[in-house]
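User: My collaborator and I are trying to settle a disagreement about how two of our proteins should look. Neither of us wants to argue from intuition anymore, so we agreed to look at predicted structures for both before our next call. Could you fold the first one, then the second, and keep them clearly separated?

Assistant: That sounds like a sensible way to settle it. I'll keep them separate. The first protein:
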Amino acid sequence: MTGTNHVLTGIAIAVTIKNPVAAPFVAFLSHFALDTVPHFGHPSIDPGSKHFVFRNLVLFLVIDAGFCFTALFWALLSWPSLWLTIILSTGFATLPDFMWIAHYGYKVNSWFFDFAKRIQVYEKPPGLVIEVIFVILVITLLISHTI
């Protein structure tokens, strides 16, 4: 899943559970649950692919980061009393993706990366449709929490 979907899920968990200890733990686990769902991927943004293009990855990450920070800013404005839970939950929901820096940047290998690759059974361009549907559902859920 894109970082945007992980961030939105972290926010949804934070505003639903409202516990700054339990919510980040659930958000961390949600990352792996989301990665088992078919989602967007493209060989030109996959550092493990022979078709990898660094410029494409950077562009994708900049756009995704923009959506992530926009969602986080909106959540902090919408639920200011839950600021700590929101920040922790979004951080833990995205943490596994940041761990890939160690794998690709520093050539670290472990059971974690084997597991994380194995659960992502369908990571192709058409998976973007599923991601967009997921964004709409989670945003609808979050809006219902603000009313």
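The second protein, kept apart from the first:
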Amino acid sequence: MKQKATAVWTGTLKEGSGVINSDSGVLSNLPYNFHNRFVGDKGATPEELIAAAHSGCFSMAFSLILQNAGLTPGKVETTATVTLEKVGEQMTVTTSHLDVKATVPGAAPAAVLECAEKAKAGCPISRLLNAKITMTATVV
């Protein structure tokens, strides 16, 4: 399977702007610019899209791993926080922290947390990122 997205940037880094589109159409002329990304103005950033991808991928992987362990996931809620910071002269995504709340009726918390660790290491987006992946998991 291959998925595509396209970004078009016009102008200089600080004064320019761009839009992101995905083949599915879920992202359609999504604007982004220097101020969104580096100053903190409201608006989309590539790192926000990575956080969305990581949280969604992890939640699905966690659900599968729970199921494969004979556990029935009720609800998995994941928030990914992606950190972009300057390392040397380069801006670098240095971490993605997963905050996870899982409701797994009848399951021992230790078994759920073991499955969460497997999902953190094994989800495709975790394996894609060349960054430290951290997580906080809570069993509800």
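Some points you might bring to the call about the second protein. The mean pLDDT is 94. Residues 17 and 33 are 5 Å apart (CA to CA).
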